[in-house]
Amino acid sequence: MYTISRFSQLCKMSARMLRHYDKEELLKPVHIDTTNGYRYYEKCQLETALRIKKLKEYKFSLPEIKSILETSDREQVTDLMHTKINELSIEINRNKQIIAEMQEMIATQVDLIGGGRISYDILLGMRNEVSVISQRLQINIADMDKYMDSLYEQAGESRIQLLSVPSAAFFDEEFIPEHCDMELMIPITHANDGAASRDWQIKKMPETLVATTLHIGSYDYIGYAYVALEEWIESNGYSLDGLPYETYLKGSECDCPVEEYVTQVYFPVIKGEK
């Protein structure tokens, strides 16, 4: 048997990492001396240690590695390999996009220190009173499209005539993607008199003054639009008079690149201090 020190030399893994693999039940020592806590490994475990190293190079997570080590089903391992290849291919393509974007910034001499902040045109106007079908949810932000599709289906089943594209308002002060408190809304022209549900409601959004702008591109950078609106409101003597919301004029449903997404951001406002 090998001591943990000798075994770590042979497989080129630190003793700390081997203890971690023991804790994760990936590679447990065959014997632990109860008097001094020394750990011992057998020669046959060296192959397992080297296999773990190779699977880590292939970007498998520890739970995935554990599944591979515990199975004798070659088809299952092959499926896991194909899944990982797809994940790595997506990552490679994303990195290529990032490199191309950085190269373009350098070539066009964008202000790299300032970050090349996006410019927004701000408009002020009245939003007319409108009825909406509305659903308040606490969900993972990644599931938002699924819930929006479900709301469309429920509206159709209840014979609710939809007017335009969907919107969403967010209630959380802190962004926690796994648990977003949001309200999904779709403007309607007509609702069946008997339309009712415990999952959604029909309500009226009153006429109000709004400052608004268009954000083109990924939702990841929509914060720039919010900053632009906040600065405009402050510099023009307005204050916020309600919860901001986003209207999705063009998004994932159009099967287009995220660079072509179009989102309108609305800030209900009032002149002077509220």
Folded structure, characterized:
This protein has 274 residues and is of the alpha+beta class. The chain has helices spanning 4-11, 15-23, 45-57, 62-70, 74-107, 144-157, 223-235; strands at residues 2-3, 31-32, 39-41, 123-127, 130-139, 161-162, 167-170, 180-190, 201-205, 208-216, 238-240, 245-250, 262-271.
Present the secondary structure layout.
Elements (H helix, E strand, L loop, with lengths): L1 E2 H8 L3 H9 L7 E2 L6 E3 L3 H13 L4 H9 L3 H34 L15 E5 L2 E10 L4 H14 L3 E2 L4 E4 L9 E11 L10 E5 L2 E9 L6 H13 L2 E3 L4 E6 L11 E10 L3
Antiparallel strand pairs: 1-3, 2-3, 4-10, 5-8, 5-9, 6-8, 7-8, 7-12, 10-13, 11-13, 12-13
Q: Report the uncertain regions.
A: none
State the distance separating the first and last CA atoms: 76 Å
CATH class type of the largest domain: Alpha Beta
- CATH homologous superfamily annotation of the largest domain: Regulatory factor, effector binding domain
Give the CA-based shape. Answer: elongated
At CATH level 3, the topology of the largest domain is Multidrug-efflux Transporter 1 Regulator Bmrr, Chain A
Strand content: 25-35%
Briefly say what this structure is.
It contains seven helices and 13 strands.
Descriptive tags:
10-stranded antiparallel beta sheet; 36% helix; Multidrug-efflux Transporter 1 Regulator Bmrr, Chain A; Multidrug-efflux Transporter Regulator, Chain: A, Domain 2; 3-stranded antiparallel beta sheet; 2 domains; 13 strands; alpha+beta; 274 residues; elongated
